[in-house]
Automatic annotation (TrEMBL):
Belongs to the drug/metabolite transporter (DMT) superfamily. Small multidrug resistance (SMR) (TC 2.A.7.1) family. Gdx/SugE subfamily. Its main location: membrane. It is a multi-pass membrane protein. GO terms for cellular component: plasma membrane. It comes from Sphingomonas kyeonggiensis. It is found in: Cell membrane. One of its GO terms (biological process) is xenobiotic detoxification by transmembrane export across the plasma membrane. This is Guanidinium exporter. The keyword Iron-sulfur does not apply. One of its GO terms (molecular function) is transmembrane transporter activity. The chain crosses the membrane at residues 27-46, 58-78, 84-102. Keywords: Cell membrane, Membrane, Transmembrane, Transmembrane helix, Transport. Pfam families: Multi_Drug_Res (PF00893).
Length: 106
């Protein structure tokens, strides 16, 4: 269950990052509100996962999901560049996340 909570926290990080971009520097009300609400929920779920998981594991997985997720949303939704080097970097992050999960006792 703790890993499910952590994954949801990471996915919420992707949501708030996307809506932060849409808020145009917090000048648009609805995207700004969505950013703040999902940010709070993401932090809250991360803190719940840290009750069981080590800090390094929880934080690394959370930021990794957010980073790769935001990268994917940038490419798919916002039309950002998908070069071979950027895709390789994302693959390395995912590899690190898998290794972090495999090395966890939980």
């Amino acid at each position: 269950m703790v890993w499910f909570i952590l994954v949801i926290a990471g996915l919420l990080e992707v949501v708030w990052a996307f809506f932060m971009k849409q808020s145009e520097g917090f000048t648009r009300l609805v995207p700004s509100i969505v950013t703040l609400v999902t940010m709070g929920a993401s932090f809250g779920l991360l803190s719940l996962s840290m009750r069981t998981l080590p800090l390094g594991t929880a934080y690394t997985v959370w930021t990794g999901i957010g980073a790769v997720g935001a990268f994917a949303v940038g490419i798919v939704v916002l039309g950002e560049q998908a070069s071979l080097m950027r895709l390789g970097a994302a693959a390395l992050i995912v590899s690190g996340l898998v290794l972090m999960k495999l090395s966890s006792a939980h």
